[in-house]
Amino acid sequence: xxxxxxxxxxxxxxYPSHGxxxxxxxxxxxxxxxxxxxxxxxxxxxxxxxxxxxxxAKKTGLRHIIGQDQLSKVYxxxxxxxxPCKGMWSRRATEYEAKINSGELHLIAEVVRDLHKNxxxxxxxxSERVIYESALNxxxxxxxxxxxxxxQEVQEKIENIIxxxxxx
Length: 168
Hints:
Layout: E1 12-15, E2 19-31, E3 34-43, E4 48-53, H1 57-60, E5 63-64, H2 68-79, H3 89-102, H4 105-116, H5 126-147, H6 151-167
Antiparallel strand pairs: 1-2, 1-5, 2-3, 3-4
Helix pairs in contact: 2-4, 3-4, 3-5, 4-5, 5-6
């Protein structure tokens, strides 16, 4: 049995470039004379479905949500000091986007931590705000599902952790 079969209809999964979704179906299609299987993943927030070839699921980074044991790594990232801003914003933005699209929750937590410092700055650039919100939404949605708590509660918890570090 293929390793990709570990995903089943109803599983909550993370697709790196879109975040948390639910496998709604595993469908078979004939394309170019070949029979292919696809995971049909629905992303509630975007009201979007995506078809991922079963054979490419691992390569695309499709994964189950993290376990409680991995959550400590996320909180460690949030509780550490933000990296100092060095270099051009365009280069840093590319690095932040790469971390978000990696699908690795502890890396996404680093983006949230590093960009949180200017969260209420009215002069903050649009792109910085978009990257921060994208990372925060990915982080919150996965933790919310993992811990079975409301998104707003997760967001408050994360903001409190970061503010405590900044105040210290």
